[in-house]
Design goal:
Helix content: 10-25%
Strand content: 15-25%
Structural class: alpha/beta
Shape: elongated
Largest sheet: 9 strands, mixed
Number of domains: 4
Radius of gyration: 38 Å
CATH topology of the largest domain: Leucine-rich repeat, LRR (right-handed beta-alpha superhelix)
Number of helices: 15
Number of strands: 28
CATH architecture of the largest domain: Alpha-Beta Horseshoe
Amino acid sequence: MDDIPIISNYNGSDIDLYSVTYQYRNITTIPKDLCNISKLVFVDFSYNYISNLDTISCIMALDTLILKANRVTHLKNDIFSGMHYLRVVDLSYNALRYIEPELFLNMDGSILHFDVSNNLLANIDITNTVREKHDYFCIANFSYNVIYKLTNVMGWVCDKDRDLGRGGYVDFTNNNFTYFLNVAELGFYDITLLGKLYYYSFDFRFNNWFCDCRFFPVANKADISLQILGSPHHGIKCDSPPEYKNKAVGEFVREKDLLICNISLAEKCPPHCRCFYQPSKNRTVINCRSSLVSRKLPLTLPDYDNLVLDFSLNRISDLLVQFQRLLSVERPYLLKTKEISFASNEINIVPDNIFVALQNVTRITFTNNLITKIPVSLKKLRPCNVLFGTIKMKCACSDIWLQNWLPSIGDCYNNTRIMCQTSSGSRSILDIDKDILGCDTGVVVIRWITIILGICLCCIIISTFIIYNFRIDMYILLRTHFQRLRQSSISPSFDYGVYISCNEQDENLRKWIKHTLLPYLKGKRLSVFLPYRDCQPGTPREDEIREMMTKSRNILIILSEVYDDIAKRWLECELKYSWLNYRCDWRKNIVIINYDLLETKNISDEFVKAFSRLGKCIDFSNFQNDIEAKMSSG
């Protein structure tokens, strides 16, 4: 051991510490006699042929281990067990292919400098990247390997109470990373847990990053993404697709809509069409503009939800046959369709089965076609969800329903405009009455007289039955006729002009209330109590409903088609107290807006059904400015 220099007064102490340097000696193993040197703190075996490190843990006092340019291929997770003082390990330029998971979890010391750069590593386990037992480290260098993914072989999970220390610099530059990491698979089941890596500094530069929708989960969390992806000195850049080459990934924090995943022909994207998934809008776009060579709709599409289909600028004509063909296929994609466009085709007839097949659609476009007739089945959709543009047609009495369906005012007024050909020229169907169309109104009068006589006859025979089943209707009619007899001066004035009952979970309804209804009521100087806006936190909801309805002059009920369990519970409570207030206080009024155009038979509440039967519900699609008269009547 003549070449072992003795270092005296190391670090200002009187303890003798030793170092060994064996460079370029062609040795294949670490000499066992080094284990006998109890104060050996520095070993440098660079540029040798060492492949086995099993004996290294016997050097208990070792501080620095340099094994640069050897032939180490495998690193066991207990290789440094018992080495309390080890701080520096250099295994760069070896043939290292695998590091067992939990290497740092089995260490008793804290490696501040860990260098495995310029090796043959293809993957690294997450447990060898984050440190639970060590407060901090300086650098973990994994650069210049062939790493293409991080693994989680042991199923490690980062929970909210876990401490990952103060971290350090983790160098993954010049590897083979292509697709962004799935943080859930790496143990971060909640992406916000990545905040525990705040003090870590990950460098992923100079990799072949493919910038697609897999970056979205992190890009969608601005603080986390700027920390991991957008650091000025670690700003990684895209390598592909070509349109994003050399674009800084951090920019996607501000342009998340650019993060898409293209869908290939193998994933059922139709030939000549472009298909992609866009997580920022939670939709899958199938763009077949000017692409349907056969003029037929595809039988299959990518197996994704929330499809946005664009079949515009083709030469589609017969939709009846097309949809019969699609409905014959098992699990047709139409039920997953949210938006569909047939703009600028050759369609002249819109079949009834299209609205049955597209029952979940929120927007359907038929502009710039040859359509001359609108099917009655269109009533199943809201007028704001359909775009026909301007249609010129020969109107008949059977088309009068369009006057109630088409909006006369509002943002979607121009979505569909029906122009009727008359002797005096082209006129909007909203401005035409039955006389112009030559409809026989006398038949309707005779029909009603017959119905009334029949009802009178039935009342004599089964009066008890009618009174029981239509007692609410009768009460409403009785109250309407004798409303002038109420004494409005007996009780004090009300705190609120209007109490609004609605499905607060319906986002579109909330927007309409905020931007249309509330300004309208405010303009009429009516004070409004809106439960989801005005209820006091901590107050029992039912008690507050009962109290506020008592203090309100008018109760405005907006009917929706679908409620979740919680919304349904509060609706039932509000309807109960609405009826009680209406029945007990003749000064109060109830106004019902049929927002989803529900038919009477589909309404479950008896008193609301009675209002609907008596025609006292205001259809949302034919909403006129008469709500003031209904709420202020009497």
